[in-house]
Amino acid sequence: MKMKNKKAEQKAAKQKHLEQLRAQRRKEPSLERPVAELTEKPSILIVCEGENTEPSYFNQFRITSAKVKSVGEGYNTVSLVNRALALAQQGNFDQVWCVFDKDDFNDKDFNSAIQIAEANNFGVAYSNQSFEYWLILHFNDHQGSGMHRDSYNDKINEHLKPFKVVYDGNGTKLIEEDFFELLDGIDDKTSRKRTELAIARAERNYNQFDHTNPAREESSTTVFRLVRELLKYVE
Fold it and tell me: Residue by residue, what is the 3-state secondary structure of 79-130?
């Protein structure tokens, strides 16, 4: 009888020891590699007034960590913002940007477009007078004084001539790869990227105004805000 009790005690002790080992293992840190959480890329919708120039420019950015959709709609000022509202409702976008120019549209429509866009939490990348002013700032430290858009194309091609590149501002109005590479290249005089120079110049010129009447703030552009945002997602 005593022998049976002794065996039972040994069996119980062994079981208790096993349970203690199991409990200890559960407390020990796991050496398994944690499974990486999949994060969805942010989605950005860019709705452009121009059907060629602006979309061809934004589509050249080598975006890797975001999903960017750039469309040229052919609308202007208020009608463009309304079109952006319609497109935004068709998809799930984290950011929506409206890209349009002052050109010769009336002041009220231009200013209203900015106000409506901002009221809907859209980013606004406008240019006064036109998008080509943003391109010029990559090569020319323009101080923000008036320059008629009729002079923009000649000014751009003057800077492109040494590189044997031509911008057909009166024809296709496309930002081809060779042109974009120059825009994103290094400036020989400053050893800085031209995109960085354009952002700094555009922001400086923009800050010279009080923004109570953007239609009269020539020359200025807020495209630098959109470009700065896109650069966050470039490889």
Answer: HHHHHHHHHHHCCCCCEEEEEEECCCCCHHHHHHHHHHHHHCCCEEEEEECC
CA distance 87 to 214: 25
126, 100 Cβ separation under 8 angstroms: yes
Q: Do the Cβ atoms of 66 and 41 come closer than 8 Å?
A: yes
In the three-class reduction of DSSP (H, G, I as helix; E, B as strand; rest coil), residue 44 is classed as strand
Amino acid at 70: S
Beta bridge partners of 44: 68, 95
Q: What is the pTM of this model?
A: 0.82
pLDDT (tens digit, 9 = 90+) per residue, 121-164? Answer: 999 999 999 999 999 999 999 998 888 899 999 999 999 999 99
Non-local (6+) Cβ contacts of 232 within 8 A are 65, 66
